[in-house]
Amino acid sequence: MQETISFTPQLGTSAITGILWLIPAVPILASGVIALLKQPKRRTAATLAIGSLAFSLILALIAFAHVLSGWAHGHAVRETLNFTWFQFGRTNVDLGWVLDPLSAVMLVMVTFVGLLIFIYSTGYMAHDENYTRFFCFLSLFAGAMLGVVIANSLLLLFMFWELVGLTSYLLIGFWYLKPSAAAAAKKAFLTTRVGDVFFLLGIVWLFGDTGTLLFYNSGAGSIESHALLGLLIERSAFGLSAAGAIGLLIFAGAAGKSGQFPLHVWLPDAMEGPTPVSALIHAATMVAAGVYLIARVYPLMQAGALAGGTTTALTVVTWVGAFTAVFAALIAVAQNDIKRILAYSTVSQLGYMMAGLGMGGVAVGMFHLITHAFFKALLFMGAGSVIHGCHEEQDVRRMGGLKSDMPVTFITYAIGMLALCGFPLLFSGFWSKDGILEAAEHFSVSKGPFYMLVLGALLTAFYMTRQVSYVFFGVNRGAKNAHESPTSMTVPLGILAFFAIALGAVGTPAWPWFRSFLDGRAATLEWSGFSEPGLAALMVTSSLVVFLGLGLGWWLYGNRSPQPEDPDVLESAAPVPWAWLRDRLYIDEVYTATVIAFYGWWARVADWLDRRVWGGAVAVVAWAFGLWAQLNRFLDTNVVDGSFDKSCEELSTGGGLLSRMQSGRVQTYLRLLALAVVALAAILIWSSRA
Amino acid sequence: MNPLTGYLLVAALLFAIGLAGALTRRNAILVLVGIELMLNAANLNLIAFWRYGPHPELLTGMMFAIFSIAVAAAEAAVGLGLVIQIHRHAHTTDLDAMSRMKG
Amino acid sequence: MIEKADQVFVLLSHWLVSFLPSALQPAAAVLLSVVAIIVTFPALFAISVLLERKGLGRMQNRYGPNRVGPFGIFQPVADGVKALIKEDIVPFRADAVVHFLAPVFLVVVVFMGYAVLPMGRNMTLVNMDAGLLFFFAIGASTELSVFMAGWSSRNKYSLLGAMRAVAQMISYEVPLLMSSVAVVMITGSLSLGKIVDAQNRYTYGLPHWYVFTPWGFAGFVLFAIAAMAETNRSPFDLPEGESELVAGYFTEYSGFKFALFFLGEYVGMMGISGLAATLFLGGWSAPFSWLGWVPSWFWFFAKVMLAMCIFIWVRGTLPRLRQDQLMNFAWKFVLPLTFLNLMVAGLWRFMGEGWLRWLVCSAILLLAYTLMGRNGMRSDHIGPRSYRYAD
Amino acid sequence: MSIVFYVIAGLSVAGALAAVLLKNTVHCALALTLAFAGLALLFLELDAQFAGFAQILVYIGAVAILVVFAILLTRGSETPHETVYSRNPLVGLVTAAAIFAVLGWAVLHSSQALPGPAGTPTAEPQVTVMDIGNALMGRYVLPLEIVALLLTAALIGAVIVAMHEKEAAR
User: Given CB atoms, is D80 within the 8 Å cutoff of chain A?
Assistant: First the structure.
């Protein structure tokens, strides 16, 4: 009877927590070393990066095992190690790191997927001249991401957060000679900044109210009950509690990183970066950082929620997530760039996660995050392998019939695609998405999100089928003599494919191991989990939806291989909405027309002010000083110098007289000295006489 | 007469002789020699005062003399080194010729 | 009886002095011992010269002098007579006074050194408190006589030899002094008598000579090297290198003055040997406790003669150094080692009894010796030759 | 005042005079050593054994040799033909004489004030080298250190000053 085991929160720190900081530190150190390497030292660089991350993986596994054993013995392990960074006044700013199921799981995922992607990159980037720089950035990114994961202080998290942003900027703009890449990098950086500003506001607010930024500090942490009470009492605008407001601000930051609806624009463009980067940053880790952030501050978001009820913050999260899911899926339908399609699907999946967090709680969202990390990384790397095989061709319409040319890639890609679509029972994606849908169904506020998510699922299945049939089926259009990728790329694909299937096992309703692990409850295997009311129906529904999407996609695109020139099937059917979708619903254009235009205007105004107003003032001052200087000069030349010269002449004449005595002969001086001595002695004796 | 007086007189005489040498010889080395003599005279004074002073067991004068001997050695080394260097540049040790520093 | 044999000379002098009025007795005693010294050591000088000539001869596969007297043992006498009756030549341009003073000064100074050597129990001429210092002070002034000789001869060979000799003596005087300072540190006294007493103790019949301690052994070796250089003996005999400068600073000397120089050199050697024996070999103390019945003075002179034999042996064995090698060796090898030895002696003094200090001190010294020998003294580290070809 | 004192004093004064007056520089140096020796003897006469030997060791053993070396290195060993005195040496002589006059006057003038009853030397102090060593390591350890530093600096300085410039040597 495992229920008898009481899950007491265990707080103390163990050895592994003491050295937790090594996990991010080692890759960062490695990147520093690599940065010092010379360009041709490719092998060393790769070895360093992979070795450091492997080390982190081992540590992460140890930590995970520690947490797991604690959990098996019935403790909700939450070990923190905090220290004071600096102190002003009486408030001191604390940093620290935490080891609890959430961070443990995340650590393992990031290090594992990251390691696979590193290995993959050695093959993918083999011909790139800036190989070492690439690995320098990669491991710096990995370190930063791991830092985000282990941070126990919102401040520390924010630092690593910004570091992640920086590295993503560097990696997206890795081929900075391509103007599009440079632009994309800038765009990603600026867009995420918008979110981060709100995030920072939230941090400051939280610090102002609770006086600490530590998450958990044995009761004194900022998101532990005591502080939360204070936050709940305080009211802020729109009838929000301070907790809610801060939660929303933080969510803005998360939305920026995770490409939620208003701030999603950077993510598709980020595909300008090398494919491993896309896989690492824009599928597995960085975009997940936003979700992870929300999961981390979940108590804050949830604060004040009645049993089964929800809070404003969570509702907002849910709606944004759900909307993003559908919206991005819609756009994905009409894209032709293989990576863009995946990018939009990522956005929509992130929407799923957000919605899952908003409705179902940490476990639901995180589960989807983990599974998604695996199969989306798989998809991206498969896409990379395809692009590699087709000689940097990215347009799906110029591919086709690759299933015979690159079988491994095809099989793994198919697995990833099915997982993403949520193909029933077999694949991890199904279970995680199912959890979200279930949560959505029980959502108290409204049924809207549920229907939106179902629609999203349909669209997902549809566009993925479209892409796959474009890429792998039909006859090859363009991209002659496509070839399979090297093993260094295919092996990771295989491993990821395995996990894309296997991970589902830990999240089935029958055995919700993952959820109970995160929530710190005992996991029991009871088949009755399936026979919960409505669950079966839900599963059937989602399966049907998925089948519908697949079938629709296959009926429209399967095995017919249109030439790149002639219009898409849907386009010929409904040109106008197609054009809308193809042009990403003109979000970018809207931004260009509103925000950017405004900034341009404002810049011009500022420029005008500079030139006319401030410039004029400066000119006047300068003129005045010039006048003053003239006056001084006049005084100098006529008054000061005159007297000075005269005195100097006096001095030099006097010196001339004196210098007569300076014959330059030592002995003359000695004689003078001796005479002086004589005189002195005589005086002394005389005085003593008297 | 008082033995101390005798020593002091000898010291004074040596000092005067050394000074005379330092003042009148034109060879830089001999000027240094004179200076050494003066130093020795001073040492003699110190020792004499130590010997006939009220507290010889304190060894003050003796110590002073020993230290001054050490310092004199250093002074001689550096001084002669300088003389050699000057000779290397000006090819003379004649002090009257070395009046480059005159004002 | 044994005491009588031991103190025979002391008793003798007492007996002789006792004939004089008591007012003169101290002075007379001193005078007597001075005379004794002045008689003894030239005799030893003669013996050692013979020894050297015959020994070198053997080493070079030839008979030494073997004509005068049985086995040529009267050779020194013949040499002395020859030196005395030879014409005394003084170069025309030479500075006659200095030229004359140089050998006299040398001999006087060299003999003065013996004043403080304890040649046996109660057989020290002046047992002064700063005996060691006195010895070195006197020894330092031999350089002056060498210079006088070289300069006054108005001969470039002499001058070069003198300059070399003086430079070399100054260079090696420092390690000589430093290596004996170690002994002073351990004994805690500058008086040679006290130093000998400190070594005149036995455990299991074995003496406490300083040479039987790590620092003492190192110090002894360094002292020996420095002593050879100090006395311009081979392999440090550049100042009188026949192949380069006819005979060094006494090229222009002949006859009696030459003999004086010769005497001075050997007496100096014996003096320094005596000092070495006193400092490291336990002076007049017997090598084994059960040999205590042998008169102390015998041991002293035995040790001195042994040292002389070593001098001769080395001369017959080693080739001559080059000037720059000589200087490098002095300043880059011997001097640092002596300083290190000084510190090791301090360590020895403060580590207390026990086997540990033996281990540590020997280890340090051995390590230093190997390292410096490897790195400091490798031939490519000797540096460029100090002279240049005439081009 | 013992006869020994007068002899030694005369010796050293004579040496000093010779060192100052002789024409040949090397003779001057040798005479200087004579003066040094005399002074050392005076020290011994004053029961300052250690100081006396130190005097011999340092001055005769080192300084005199240094002077001689310097003379030879500066080719000053041959007697110069023109005068060895600098211009108007009389001034120097007068000055030196004046100094002697003043000092002697001072000594004689204050001879009554001097410690110790006239004529009888105070009991000779019993100082062993051990005492000196203790004093050096105890009361006078700071001066000792400073002197050590000074000597080191002087050594280095002398070497650097007298060293051949490399380009000159080439």
Answer: no
